[in-house]
From TrEMBL:
One of its GO terms (biological process) is proteolysis. The lineage of its organism: Archaea, Thermoproteota, Thermoprotei, Thermoproteales, Thermoproteaceae. The keyword Cell membrane applies. Keywords: Cell membrane, Hydrolase, Membrane, Metal-binding, Metalloprotease, Protease, Transmembrane, Transmembrane helix, Zinc. Its cofactor is Zn(2+). Its main location: membrane. This is Peptidase M50. It comes from Pyrobaculum ferrireducens. Belongs to the peptidase M50B family. It is found in: Cell membrane.
């Protein structure tokens, strides 16, 4: 019963986070905030496209963290931050840009099974999210080059930017943990993310 309730709560947290982020991103792409004007028709038009992109860019990122942690023997689950989550809509409404801290994958501080190296585990778990975004960005570029649809450019661009942002060596971002535990591996990964952003720019 407890496990079923925990899984249900995680699904609710993921669904709420995805819905709020979708609205926030759509508003930020449709104007310059309340003072500068918001095109609400464009917001509604963008909602399904933004939801599809964030299904990969956001949920793919968080699920990558969770699954790698579980494979390494840790208990891990996504938890929404209901204190900071509303900022994902408030900032686009007021200022026209998005600032989002929707939540994070919470990982137990001890292993449930197996043995391993803590520094290695922290690096792999932290890297999983940005690497998933890099993979989706490359997929988006390939589809854009093949189909020549602006949607796939947008798909690639959002994933590339999220990868680069999360790889910055600023706590509590993934990049700070990666640089602390394995700077030699962190450097080429953030370089790839930066090159993808520059190429798409």
């Amino acid at each position: 019963m407890f496990d079923r309730e925990v899984r249900r709560r995680e699904l609710v947290d993921m669904a709420v986070s995805l819905a709020v982020l979708t609205l926030g991103f759509s508003i930020s792409l449709s104007g310059r905030g309340i003072a500068g004007g918001i095109n609400w028709a464009k917001v509604i038009y963008l909602l399904p496209y933004t939801a599809f992109v964030l299904l990969f860019a956001f949920l793919g990122h968080e699920l990558a963290h969770r699954q790698v942690a579980r494979r390494l023997g840790y208990y891990a689950m996504y938890q929404a931050d209901y204190t900071l989550l509303p900022l994902a809509v408030i900032f686009p409404l007021l200022f026209g840009f998005i600032f989002a801290a929707p939540g994070a994958v919470v990982i137990s501080p001890f292993r449930l099974y197996g043995r391993g190296d803590e520094r290695r585990d922290v690096f792999f778990i932290s890297a999983a999210g940005p690497l998933s975004n890099i993979a989706f960005a490359v997929l988006g570029i390939a589809l854009f080059e093949t189909i020549a649809s602006q949607f796939w450019w947008f798909f690639a661009y959002i994933n590339a930017w999220l990868a680069l942002f999360n790889l910055l060596p600023i706590p509590p971002l993934d990049g700070s943990k990666m640089m602390r535990t394995n700077p030699a591996m962190w450097l080429p990964i953030i370089a790839v993310a930066a090159l993808l952003v520059l190429w798409l720019w």
